[in-house]
Structures are given as C-alpha cells and as structure tokens.
Amino acid sequence: MQSNYIEQLNPQQKAAVLYTDGPELVIAGAGSGKTRVLTYKIAYLLDQGVAPWQIMALTFTNKAAREMRERVELLLDAQDLGKLWMGTFHSIFARILRLNAEKIGFKSNYTIYDASDSVSAIKHIIKDLGYDDKVYKPSSIQARISNLKNAMVSPADYKRDKRWAQEDIEAKRPYLGVIYDAYCTQCRNSQALDFDDLLYYTNVLLRDNPDVRARYMQQFKYILVDEYQDTNFAQDLIIKQLAGDDTKICVVGDDAQSIYSFRGANIDNILNLQSIYPGLKIFKLEENYRSTQNILDVANSLIAANTHQYRKHIFTHNGAGKKVRVIRCASDYEESYIIANTIASLKRQAGYKWSDFAVLYRTNSQSRVIEKALNSGGLANDHGHMRSPIPYRIYGGLAFFQRKEVKDALCYFKMVINPDDEAIRRIINYPRRGIGDTTVEKIHRCAARKKVSMWEVITRPGFYGLDVNRGTLGKIASFKAKVDEIQQLDRAGKDAYETARGIIEKTGLLEILMGDKTPENISRQENLQELLNSVKEYVDNHLEETGNVATLAEYLTDAALATDQDNDQNADGDCVTLMTVHAAKGLEYRNVIISGVEDNRFPSYKNQDRLAQIEEERRLLYVAITRAKENCIMLYSDTVVMAGKPTPVAPSRFIMDIDPKLLLMSQTSFAASKAGSYDSYHSRWDRENEEGYKEHNAHQYQSHRASDSPTRAESQHLQAASPRRLTPVRQVQGRPTTGGGSAHTPDELHVGTVIKHARFGEGTVTNIDLTTDAKITVNFNALGQKLLLLKFAKFDIVG
DNA sequence: ATAGCGTCCGACCGG
DNA sequence: CGGACGCTAT
Ligand SMILES: Nc1ncnc2c1ncn2[C@@H]1O[C@H](COP(=O)(O)OP(=O)(O)OP(=O)(O)O)[C@@H](O)[C@H]1O
C-alpha cells in the first residue's frame, strides 16, 4: 500500500473519499477526478479493514472496467483483490445470476445470447409468425425489446399496460407484443439470457426473493458506481434494491456527459438520488486536472449552448497549451491521411508515444478509411518512399469472439454447457452433415409447438413427433451422438482448457480448415489456436487469483460479454487507439483527434428532430473534446463516401457553437481549391498556413481507390488475430503476458529471491507466509507489491 | 442440400 | 462499397 496516497487528493476529493457515514454523490465536470475518487476510495476502504468481497464497484464499458482495475492495482500493492466485485454491470450481475439462476427459473448453466444471437432469434420468430421483415426489421425490433427490458416491462406488463402497445401502434408495428412474447418464451426454453435479461432478471431475482436480496444487502457494505448519469431504469433499480440500511453507496457522474439515452439512460436517475436517499451527501469537484485551459475553454464554450444542464464551475491550473484546431478537408479519404500525418509529425516533433494518441469517431464504420491511412503510414515522402505503418488498435467493431470460426467454436462449447437454439442453428450443419434449412425449420417449429428447446426435440424426435424422413432422422441421430460425445469431455475436475481442447479435437474444427491452404484458412486456424490460448490463460489466471478451477461456463460468460476484444496482433505494444466517442467515455489521452465532425454525424442524421436529441449529440462532442490532455484536433470533410458514393456533407453545426476566438481553423489546399458551399464557415478560416496543410499536394488525395493498401478484411487474414486477455470478473488484471514459468515450493525461495513472473515481470520476494496456503509477497519492478498464492503462481527463479 | 453467383439495399452508439 | 439474401445449376 502506498502510504500517503490520500495526500494525492485535493481537499474536496479527500472529503469524498473519507466520507463513510452514508450515501454520497460526487457530481462534477469532466476531468475533475471523479473516477480518481472512486479508485482511491476503494483503496481507503480496504485499508480501513473492509473486506474486498464487501465492495461492489461498477462501470459501464469493458475498457473503463480494465482501466479502473489497473488504477486500483497501482495503489494497492500487496492486497488480495481477487474477491473484489469489480466490473461492468453486465459481468457482475451475470455472476450473481449464475449463482441464483434456479430462483428465476433458469439453470445455472444458462448461456448468454449476444446481440447477433438475439437479432437472429428475433428474425426467425418474425419469419415464423409470417410478418413482413421490412416492417418488422429484426434489428429495430431487437432494439425495441431491449428498451422494454431496460424499462422493466415484461411481455405480461406489455399486455396489461396499453401505453407500450400504443407506442408500437403509432410506430406501425402493432404485433410487437406477440414477437416479444415469443422471443422470451424461446429464450426461456433455450435457457438463454440476452444482455438485457442480465439486468432485467437481476431485478426480478432481488424483487421476488427477499432472502436473496437480504443476503446481498448484507454482503455489500459499499456500492460504488462510475458514470451514474448513464444508468437506465433497470440499472438504477438494481442499485436501489441492493442498497440496504447498512450499505453505503457512492456514485459519481456528470449530467453534461450523459450520452447513452439510446439504451434508456436517464439523467434523472442521478438528479433524483437525493429524494431516494434523504441523507445523501453531495460533493462537487471544481478543478480540472486533465486538460489545458484552451481545451477546457472550447469544451465549456460548446456545452454552454445546451439549455438543459446544471451549470458547473470548473477551472484548471494547467497552462493555456495549444489552441484547439479545426481542419477542413476535401474528402474523408484526404482527412484520413491528414490524421496519419498529424500523428506522425506530432510524435516526431514532441516526442510522443503512439499510445499518446486516440482517434475518435461517431460510428465504427468510420475506422476503415482511417485504418488504411495508418497502415500506409501517411503520405509518401518527397522521394516517393512510403512511410512505415503507424501501429494502431481498435476497440469495438467486430470483436475477436464474433469472428465466424471463433464463434463456431464457442457454439460447440455452448453445446456442452447448454445447447441453446442459436448455437444449434449455427453448428448443426457445420461441418456439413446434410441437415439443411428445411430440417432445421422443422425441428424449430416442432420445438416451438411443444414449448421445448430444439435440443429436446433432437434428443427425442419420436416423442415430440418430429416429421422428417428416415434418412434425415439418421443424420440428426449422428449429430446428437457427436454432441453427446463432446459433452462427456466436461467431466468434473476437468478445467475449461482441457474441455475446450477436447472439443476442438473431437469436432475436427481445425482439420476442416487444413483442407485448402488459402491465407484466410491459415488465419482461421491461427484464430482457433488463439482461442485455445485465451482459454488457457483464463484458467491460469483464475487459478492463481482465486484458487478455483475455471469452468467452461464461466469462460463462455466472459467471452460473450467481451464485446470489445479486438483482434490486432500488436495489441499489447505501443499503438494509437481508434474507437468511438461512446467507448472513450471516462478515458483520457494526451492527443485526441476527432474525425468526421460533420452535420450528419455530430449530430447523427438520426438525431436531428428534437432538442433533447441535439443536446445529447452536443454532449457527445463535449465528451470527445474533454478526453484530450494537451492537443485536440477536429476534422471534417466536404464529401464523405457513403454507400460507395461520394456525398457532400456540411460541417458540424456544433463548430458554430464554439467561440471562434478559441479555435484555429485551417483547410487543406485541396479543400480550399474547391470553392466552398459553406461560406459562413469558410469565412472563419485563419489565413495562416497552419503546419503546412496547404502545402500538401492535392493530387495525392484525388484518387480514392480501394486497392492502394489491403482492406481491413485482407489485412486481418494476413496476420494472426488474438484476443486481449480475458480475466475473470472478480479478479484484478495483470500486465500483458510474456513467457511462461512454472510452480514452485516454498523451500526454493527466500526473502530476496528474484523471480520473473509470466505476467508481472521481474520482482523480489519480500515476504513468505506459510500459515495457511503458502503465499509470497513479491515487490515487482513494474507493479509494486503483490501477493501470490504459491501453489498456483507461475514464475521462474532468476536469482 | 448446397455452392456460387448476381442483385439489392442501406449505413449509430455498448454490454 | 460490402454484407445479406435469393436464385440457379448441380
Ligand atoms: N488531485 C489530483 N491531483 C493530480 N491529478 C489529479 C487529481 N485528481 C485527478 N487527477 C487526474 O486528472 C485526470 C482526470 O481524472 P478522472 O479520470 O478521475 O476524472 P473524471 O472526473 O472521472 O473525468 P471524466 O468525467 O471525464 O471521466 C486523471 O489523469 C487523474 O489522475
């Protein structure tokens, strides 16, 4: 434990950390240290003797959860943090549901439908019911059902309270209730929960089981929640249900950063806290530690345009810094090269690392063109040589676990744990075994009629009266035999890795890909291998930190919720970060580049009708700007390629909200050469030639060809993908893995021994504790003190 | 039943 | 442009 960590807080932060007499709310602007208060508070509580398992700490995004773990880890050297309930809402409550599944009528081996499973299930239901899938667009229906669940409206509630049905009648989809009902029935028959169910059923569990609720209220003495302004009804309700008389809640948030209304987030949740917890103590933080004065001024100038906001006083002692720049480009193609060049030249001039840069955008699809530019390293230099590629890493988008070959393997894993309908549909005919759509539909219809899962029907086709011919029946029987065979692999005592490896072997998934040696197939093989490595690593971590063997079911839960695990090989190295603004919430970078600041993206073309929508979009840009510590650069283009066609777009109206004196406007010469159609904006440009943007040769950008560099899909298959480490929910994450190591006995070690741990690097043993389980305390060079359970820790003895 | 090909459509944000 | 879907020939 760092001894004087409390002194690293300002007086307001300190007061918020030390306050333990009752419920508290920290409401403050961006970069004022709200998350810092949360992390220090966790450290302080543990220091005061609160047990780790009595503390629940919740975040929204996976990335924020990882960052918080890292921050706490740095503060708390040798603490045993394995039992801290820290993670995203979904991961923490998935765990609680796993422990209490039977109370909500599910089995504890339930599986999780990810977003694509949900949409696919809904699509089939719409087809079954004979509705037009143009009117009932599966993805919109899924979004609507998600909203209903987030508002705690069950299919029965939907029938009871006509208000909801009225909305759908107005939206011209009167049969939504029927689809909703059928979908829930199918999920239940399949023993599957979707993402929203994790929150919905947690509420049901706590509501209908006073004993369970009492137990958790008793257990969790402290509940800490980051970004509370983005909680939806279901999340807010869970917190209210868990907060007993002895529970101290500590939530932090900023109404100016509420950007998740599309999934039901409601600012009122944070503003109404006071009426729910009469003793609520409110702390305000006013000093921004993150950004330069210039960046802060721009952000404040922008957000001042919002009418619905609670004005906060915020100041900084940081220097003025560089002005925020706005750059007009001719096309998104040119823009992406300007981004690559700007990053490369800033790095060169100011000695930044790649990881000091983040490129933020509104939608994931914008990453593609930027990736191309980064891969090419930006402009060709004067001698025509291409620069070396700029390493980058993408969060969000198509995650590792969503890739076809990986998902197929995961579905086989599911077959062992709980063969849900969506998993069956995916793999019943992969590898090909002659069971086509017709048969699958028959099985599905039969299952729906008898209100059982498809697997039930497959197990006893005669009993359920499945109407298929003899040959097909034989094929179904041999499919069942195959699944039975792999189910035998998941015997007690076997860890997830052994089971997973067995499944891949028995199903021959790797062999199928050996068939032809296309680069795609080689890459797919490597991905499967990488999946196994990920399971192995998960099992090792779990063992080391909790002393328990990880089950395949636990691994599957985490894999389903890891929607942002990317697939870049140099993921752990020094690289630029690419992500959406939503994903960047709560994070910070020395240099932030915001791409596509145009009027169809900021605000999104979908959110331009109502004032509330516009204001949320403005907050989104506010969040983006306030991620920056030192440099903030916004870019927009005159034309953007949409659906393959260059389309003219206007600059974001939000740029006009910002006091022009605060901005440095410039444009590329190519953009300038095309006399603009947006004169009100053009008149704001500085004459000065900011960093030579006019110098760039226009013709370099004129071609917009796909073949200049490999597409993302191409380059993905040229190199092996790999997921980031998956770590158990209740476990604090270590550093990137390098090397192996083996287990050791106490007599091989003494105080002063230098060891090299697989994940924590080199360190010196400072204490050996043989009382119960042999534990050693090691002072790691990079991470400080850590407590290791000797029987599980893997390391090499260096000296 | 399925591979392969042409056509059509449409494009948000996260767990 | 790229993914999803449907038609056709085997
Ligand atoms: N008292 C302090 N002294 C020094 N640095 C601080 C202090 N408080 C916060 N910081 C630093 O300021 C930065 C922003 O802090 P933090 O991320 O906790 O803010 P936040 O209020 O959660 O921001 P946001 O709302 O944008 O997520 C961090 O780099 C943090 O380390």
Brief summary of the model shown:
The protein is α/β, with parallel strands linked by helices.
Question: Could you walk me through the main structural features you see in this protein, from its secondary elements to its overall organization?
Answer:
- ATP binds at residues 28-35.
- Its EC number is 5.6.2.4.
- Residues 293-586 form the UvrD-like helicase C-terminal domain.
- Helix 4 crosses helix 10, helix 16 packs across helix 17 (367-376) and helix 18 (404-417) packs across helix 19 (421-427).
- Strand 17 (754-757) and strand 18 form a beta hairpin.
- The protein starts with 10 loop residues before the first helix and ends with a strand.
- Mean pLDDT is 86; it is low at 677-722 and 727-739.
- The protein has 5 domains: 6-104 and 200-287, 3-Layer(aba) Sandwich (Rossmann fold), CATH 3.40.50; 111-190; 304-398 and 569-667, P-loop containing nucleotide triphosphate hydrolases (Rossmann fold, 3-Layer(aba) Sandwich), CATH 3.40.50; 400-561, PCRA, domain 4 (Orthogonal Bundle); 742-797, SH3 type barrels (Roll), CATH 2.30.30.
- The chain is built from 32 helices and 21 strands.
- Helices cover 43% and strands 14% of the residues.
- Bound molecules: adenosine-5'-triphosphate.
- The protein binds a DNA duplex (15 and 10 nucleotides) through helix 4, helix 10, helix 20 and helix 27.
